[in-house]
Amino acid sequence: MKPSSPGSGLQLFDALISAQASSRGSAPYLLEARGSRILSYAALRDEIVDLRQQLRAWGVGRGDRVGLLLGDPLTFSSWFLAGLTAGAWVAPLDPTVSTSNLIHLDARAQSLGLGAVLSDRDAPERHFVPWHNVVAATPDVSSPGVLEISDQTFSQGGVLLSSSGTTGTPKVVALPAAQLLETAELIARHNQLEVADRGFNPLPLWHINAEVVGLLSTLFAGASLVLDDRFHRTGFWKIIDDFEVTWINAVPVIISRLAVLRGDEVPPRRVRFIRSASAPLAPALFEQFEASTGIPIIQSYGMTEAASQICVNPLKGVRKSGSVGVAVGVEVRVVGTEDHAPLTEANGVGHIEIRGSTVIKSYESAAYDDRFDAEGWLRTGDLGYFDYDGYLFIVGRTDDVINRGGEKIYPLEIENVLVAVEGVAAVAVIGEFDEVFGQIPVAYLEPVDVAVLSSLDEMSKLVERVRISSNEAFSRVYRPALVKLIHHFPSHATGKIRKGLLRECDVVVVHEERL
């Protein structure tokens, strides 16, 4: 039974948790993928009461900013929800960053204006704000063990996330509690989540996707979610079967690792879909995975500024390979790259802009005010087009476009072809300086088998297969001028390739050839 939703779906977190605890009771909310811990809805309610008492003891209350540096998925989830129900601004931090190197954490804490950090590690000798160890904490449970139910929406509190900006000023995104809940409801309803559903999330919880698509949409639906510390290829399908998972939250790099079944692996038929986000999914990979596993891929498009979701393919209906689907709860338009006027005809490539109740109205820093126009449209930085059916296709980032002697080349089009070449695990195409053309497209390849990189003959064979595919797919202007083989790509926690490091030559190239 879902809690009642008054149209807009902006319920308070405490009201939602109380409603689910009353109706779902001992039913599991979160399960540990590689352990035996289970957190029921009733236990979640009781635990949050205790954790909120501890937050008060540490001086964290409504409107305060607190960082979460927590590596254990279940521990993170409880404190995350406790902070939100307390009306605090919760800032998830990357727990893979070593506390022996606090320069990164110092900068991130400063950009977010944190007043405290909750950690499951021992406090370092030097720290930037009060550092509270959640493992050693003894909650003060002297007050009644009930959540405070209110009929007003939070005027304060939500999630804070930041990323490095092109101006050097961090882009700090503040997502209010109401915005998170509305997006979670949209996702739960689109995915048709019911109480019997069980999701699987191997994505990092310090990213908006896992927080909203994983934790909060499951909470809204009264369903359950299996949390893993990261993606593990070995034994993946066994875990999915053992936990009776019905849907999987993933990204393209995970889908690529699962597309080829090993040994006697058989994906369970109960899995309704696998959701793909974070980066474009190559059509060849889309088709390979579905043919191999029989599981439908629901490709989506989102960003932190929209609380994780903008567009998504239908769960039932036409799913278009290469498309991120149609807008869900968000206004999306494509405008001209020169005049910025809305493009009304199909297949016209331009800047993708968004606005709506689940989209931020501004960043915390005025350095990014130019991303918004007078009507509230946010420039996403992505380029794309709508087809005749209103499905959105993304062709790349504005800063990825390659200008080869006046010809504009979209790297994603080349990447989608080359990733299907036998022996290629991943590919990234960037523009590099050329004295004649200004820029030329250069393809970086990561082989499926790293042993290939130890044999000159095998490397040359791989490049030759790339050459043949490139010649068949593109005219000379659009073909990569150079191919570089590397051991592995530098990537973000979600698996998205960090092209900036390729441009800075911050990778070791094992072999290169001109095409």
Descriptive overview:
By secondary structure, this protein is α/β, with parallel strands linked by helices. It is built from twelve helices and 25 strands. It has helices at 13-24, 41-57, 73-85, 102-112, 177-190, 208-221, 236-242, 252-258, 283-293, 411-418, 456-473, 499-503, and strands at 28-32, 38-40, 65-69, 89-92, 116-119, 131-133, 158-163, 171-176, 198-201, 224-227, 247-250, 273-276, 297-301, 311-312, 326-327, 331-335, 350-355, 378-386, 392-397, 402-404, 407-409, 424-434, 438-447, 482-486, 509-514. The strands form five sheets. It has a nine-stranded mixed sheet with strand order 2-1-10-9-11-12-13-14-15, sandwiched between helices. A hairpin with a 7-residue loop joins strand 7 and strand 8. It starts with 12 loop residues before the first helix and ends with a strand.
Keywords:
globular, disordered N terminus, 9-stranded mixed β-sheet, 6-stranded mixed β-sheet
